[in-house]
């Protein structure tokens, strides 16, 4: 079965609440290809997607479906081959490097599988790095919020430790705290629970859901885990670089069934 003839196991549909909120991020006819001529590989194919402000969206799909590529382009970390991406109404495909860097620094948080912690900084310094990069110190309220966030992630006793003194799960929690500490409008998370035990995973997912629900932050989470996706209020499924389903809150069982159908059809 070729990508051009792939029939989604569940008819693609638009999430019912997709037009009820202002968009925090949008793509229009977004495509990404690698290579040239007969060696061309299409990672994304004319993806049009709208992420609403304050939403918690899970992006799922089989390996090679384009989900991480989509997130990286939406976050301004990779260039599209064609199409446009807008963040908060700003077309980032038209920004120069300096403007794009400022936008990412002040309005976007990142949690990636590789953690990207600075090895020479301790936990406190890594978490506060977004303030340092923006050339300012957190005020009293921001410091109190940081300490509450650290406590909720079980990192209080580790504030003076450096990354090499932490487990993989602890490093991931530091990365999550760093992404949330400034309360950015939009947080991109790539498999944020991939290195965590079950209890810590639930705590982290609850924290992301609360950031969306209580603080109006938008979360876009790439995950392969149906349990993690069940915490989201919207789930977008990709296959062969296309959106093939878009639905509201679903149980882990429902998500598992659809993922299995997509894997079989891939």
Descriptive notes:
The structure is a single chain. This protein is an alpha/beta fold. The protein has a domain at 18-120 and 185-265: Rossmann fold. Helix content is 34%, strand content 24%. The protein contains 9 helices and 10 strands. The protein has helices at 67-74, 97-107, 123-127, 129-133, 140-152, 168-180, 198-215, 226-229, 252-265, and strands at 23-34, 41-52, 56-60, 82-87, 90-91, 108-111, 186-190, 218-222, 234-239, 242-247. The strands form 2 sheets. The chain has a 6-stranded mixed β-sheet. The chain has a 4-stranded antiparallel β-sheet with strand order 2-1-4-5, covered by helices on one side. β1 (23-34) and β2 form a beta hairpin. The longest helix is centred in the last third of the chain and has 18 residues, at 198-215. The radius of gyration is 18 Å and the shape is globular. Residues 1-19 have low confidence and may be disordered.
Please describe the topology of this protein.
Elements: E1 23-34, E2 41-52, E3 56-60, H1 67-74, E4 82-87, E5 90-91, H2 97-107, E6 108-111, H3 123-127, H4 129-133, H5 140-152, H6 168-180, E7 186-190, H7 198-215, E8 218-222, H8 226-229, E9 234-239, E10 242-247, H9 252-265
Parallel strand pairs: 3-8, 3-9, 6-7, 7-8
Antiparallel strand pairs: 1-2, 1-4, 4-5, 9-10
Domain ABC transporter: 25-265
GO molecular function, one term: ATP hydrolysis activity
Protein name: Peptide ABC transporter ATP-binding protein
């Amino acid at each position: 079965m070729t990508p051009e003839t792939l029939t989604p196991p569940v008819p693609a549909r638009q999430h019912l609440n997709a037009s009820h909120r202002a968009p925090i991020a949008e793509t229009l006819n977004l495509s990404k290809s690698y290579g040239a001529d007969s060696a061309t590989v299409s990672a994304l194919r004319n993806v049009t997607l709208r992420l609403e402000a304050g939403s918690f969206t899970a992006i799922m799909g089989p390996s090679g479906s384009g989900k991480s590529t989509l997130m990286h382009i939406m976050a301004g970390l990779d260039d599209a081959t064609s199409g446009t991406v807008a963040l908060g109404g700003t077309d980032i495909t038209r920004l120069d490097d300096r403007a794009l860097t400022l936008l990412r620094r002040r309005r976007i948080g990142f949690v990636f599988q590789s953690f990207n912690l600075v090895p020479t900084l301790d936990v406190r310094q890594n978490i506060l790095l977004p303030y340092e990069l923006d050339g300012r110190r957190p005020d009293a309220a921001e410091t109190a919020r940081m300490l509450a966030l650290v406590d909720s992630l079980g990192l209080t006793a580790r504030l003076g430790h450096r990354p090499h003194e932490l487990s993989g799960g602890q490093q991931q929690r530091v990365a999550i705290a760093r992404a949330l500490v400034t309360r950015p409008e939009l947080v991109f998370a790539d498999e944020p629970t991939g290195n965590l035990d079950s209890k810590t995973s639930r705590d982290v997912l609850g924290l992301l859901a609360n950031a969306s629900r209580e603080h109006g932050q938008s979360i876009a989470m790439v995950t392969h885990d149906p349990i993690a996706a069940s915490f989201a209020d919207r789930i977008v499924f990709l296959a062969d670089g296309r959106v093939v389903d878009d639905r509201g809150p679903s149980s882990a069982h429902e998500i598992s069934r659809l993922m299995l159908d997509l894997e079989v059809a891939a």
